[in-house]
Amino acid sequence: MELSLGIAKIKKYAVSESGDTLEFIERPGGGLSVVLVDGQRSGRGAKRISNKVAGKVVSLLSEGIRDGAAARAVSDYLYHERGGKVTATLNILSADLVTKTIVVTRNNPAPVYVAHGGEFKTLDDPSPAIGVRLHTRPVIYELPFEPGVTLLAYTDGVTHAGSRTGESLDVLAEFARLLAGDHSAQEIADAILGRAMALDHGRPVDDISVAVLKINLYEGDEIRRVSVSLPLGPLI
Questions:
Q1: Under a CB-based contact definition with an 8 Å cutoff, are residues 87 and 38 in contact?
Q2: Cβ-contact 102, 93 below 8 angstroms
Q3: Which residues pair with 201 in a beta bridge?
């Protein structure tokens, strides 16, 4: 099998930086974890928060700490660091080769969608943001590690897309349409970001980040490949 990851993100229109941070790391026992953090509001202050939170989660995961324990630890850290006055949302998507499962950890009102064998699950149990109070617990789901399983997670910029005109994106319907076309993880992420931006007429009302994790059947070589595209803008 092959594990593929698609990432697409863009900052809110007319702000200096995105308040979203997305990182991924190879797990100590094998597999991959994707960490998606949305700092409160947008801009540099939000970016500092999301960078710190994501960095601490990645550090804990690299030491073999379980996903749920890492989420609780960073929530308490953010609470103490900012006195309960700053929030962030957090998603961890992990393909764990030790347990041979996919683990989804949510501290985010936005759902995570799971597709497998033509069926879809919406992981949307009530899940609070981190940093507001001590001992905030994430909602955790464990799923089978099987070919064809595809996960979609995103920040609330997707939810807010079209809010200027009273429109909204049916994310699940768009996800299903893209999967029916046998698109790659990156193509799905790009397409959902593109639809959200279209509803905002190219001027996103919020930072938007989309992450797609997909397990495929694979008969190629054993080389691991990562491709990154990071527009830098004008250099002054």
A1: no
A2: yes
A3: none
